[in-house]
DNA sequence: GCAAAAGTGTTATGGATACACCCATGA
DNA sequence: TCATGGGTGTATCCATAACACTTTTGC
């Protein structure tokens, strides 16, 4: 029993929770799971679980998220570690929170391991969550507001090809402010960060907008020249 | 033995390491300890240790730092959690790294618990450290470079009263760039963040400069009005 | 008087802001 | 032809950067 099961043994005092943001129709969403087993069955929470001895903390975060929600192949980044003594009522558990930004439409959700439901919630309509998960989510939202202004991470929330107005609406939803259309356009265009696709919107009841995409290699080139993304 | 010792029991899979930055004579330093016991005796490392069951992770960071170095009453902030499987060779240990900025002259160092030496090292003359501590330090230095430009945390590295030139030299040391004297002066003055003391430098072989201090409440007032610190 | 740092002034440039306006398209 | 959003033009203002200059002090 010993060595053979070592790889499945988890570190009991340490868990992972993930804050996954999505965006659609000018609104920001967060991914939540409903516990399907144990004393917390029926309660909503952030996707999360325990770390195995033979996987890195980063790897555990991906595994847990995919197992519970079917969301996969995204970029997860550490948010913060939450270590208050009483944060988990049953025993001493410290949690490492991760966050990610995804394009909501790309994922087919599926309630997996010990989860009875998975759903996107409007960021302004989140129910009471288990443990300190509402605090973790708030922290993640603040972090996102800050980070989106200094790094071009917002594009992960959009389809691969998007219009300038979509980006503007994304920033307005996250920062909870209003932006000037023409000034915002110009600022983005002048960065030389976005690549114009030779394509326009289709089936819209107004003049079709040009589509752009974010290109990682263009960004890296700019970075090498000392470019600093600022909105 | 059981309940009575519960409070002293540590979480084995989780440790803490601290990156403490100091500043003096236009140079940036980091605080290191030499292990005094066990198989790593004689090796330099970041101050660090294990978390007890009845203390928060934040509290553990303060306790460990003070026990090992005598540095106390400072503001520690989480840096990042390092969770690679092989980062600690003897067993699986995930570490939560913290960092802080202090005024080097304010502290009398003292090698405490299981430590044979404590010393400030010039950031550019750091020896090979135990485990992944050089990586943690590098990460901390990058983080500091970034953060110091968006939040007024650099003042923690200076004496309570300081000159504008001292701040300039602090930024030059951390960012590893050169700044224009008069433009930097003007920028800081125009923020209305610094409080001018009615006092000047003494015993200097040149015109004595006016002394300023950073006032937390002034900063909070500015924040409420929408002020954003940017250097 | 000289060295060294304090502190002021000036000008060119370019980005930020506000807002008026025209364009293209489907209903 | 109207509503909707796409997209351009422009005048004002203000921050930045480069750099020349004057002031104060100890030696």
The rounded Rg of chain A comes to: 20 Å
Number of extended strands of chain A: 9
SSE order of chain A, one letter for each helix or strand: HEEEEHEEEHHHEEH
Question: What is the terminal-to-terminal distance of chain A?
Answer: 56 Å
Shape of chain A: elongated
CATH class (first level) name of the largest domain in chain A: Alpha Beta
Largest interface: A-B, 21 and 21 residues
Query: Percentage of helical residues of chain A?
Result: 25-40%
Mean pLDDT of chain A comes to 93
| Percentage beta strand of chain A | 25-35%
Uncertain runs of chain A:
none
Number of structural units classed as domains of chain A: 2
Q: Output the CATH homologous superfamily of the largest domain in chain A.
A: Nucleoside Triphosphate Pyrophosphohydrolase
CATH architecture heading of the largest domain in chain A: Alpha-Beta Complex
User: What structural class do the secondary elements of chain A suggest?
Assistant: alpha+beta
**Major β-sheet profile of chain A:** 7 strands, mixed
Oligomeric state of shown chains:
homodimer
CATH topology (fold) name of the largest domain in chain A: Nucleoside Triphosphate Pyrophosphohydrolase
Count every helix of chain A, treating DSSP H or I runs of 4 or more residues as helices: 6
Pfam families (chains A, B): NUDIX, WHD_NrtR
GO molecular function (chains A, B): hydrolase activity
InterPro entries (chains A, B): NUDIX_hydrolase-like_dom_sf, NUDIX_hydrolase_dom, WH-like_DNA-bd_sf, WH_DNA-bd_sf, WHD_NrtR
Protein name (chains A, B): NUDIX hydrolase
